[in-house]
């Protein structure tokens, strides 16, 4: 979990931008207070171990937004909603517009709007349903990385500009966590090249909790050569 949090801190400011005409709204929350923040938009929770969070693909309408101070809980191995409420209000988001909420060290809040002419890769991450009793929030876990933490991983890796950097980040996550076959497929599909997908599939096999279903990984490949190479590697 510590590796995941470190990855978020290093990736949060790295974005890849693609031209696109879109009408959805986005929200940026930045806090000058010490520590990271948790943002809850309606019933969705967003936290990436950072004091700055950008959330995209939101409906252009009114949303309930709450910003909490957060801290890392070593006993549960996750970031939790703790401490003061920094912001709690209903805000209106406009089409193709980014609303920025800035919170200074004294708790004063300023809001500004800017037109969004471009969208960022991975801005479609929609967080997770927020529920205090959810196992992902209570510290309960399966051998594989939780779906909540995995969605954060996918969002963060997708922010990397180059495929080489995404591959390096994905390798770090695989080394530090156990995964399901479905999670391995999602991770591999972040890459365009067949070679990178194959590299992820080979590396993740030993860290996969449901290896008996690993044949499903073949769906991500276009080439039979890649399927045969994976089969050779995992049957040695």
What is the total tally of β strands?
A: 11
- In terms of quaternary structure, the protein is single chain
CATH architecture descriptor of the domain at 17-130: Sandwich
Which runs of at least 5 residues are low in confidence (pLDDT < 50)?
Answer: 9-22, 74-79, 119-125, 130-141
CATH class of the domain at 17-130: Mainly Beta
- CATH topology name of the domain at 17-130, in short, is Immunoglobulin-like
Radius of gyration: 19 Å
Specify the biggest β-sheet. 5 strands, antiparallel
Helix content: 25-40%
What string gives the helices and strands in order? HEEEEEEEEEEEHHHHHH
- CA-to-CA gap between the ends? 30 Å
Shape: elongated
* Distinct helical segment count: 7
- Strands across the major sheet, in which order? 7-6-3-4-11
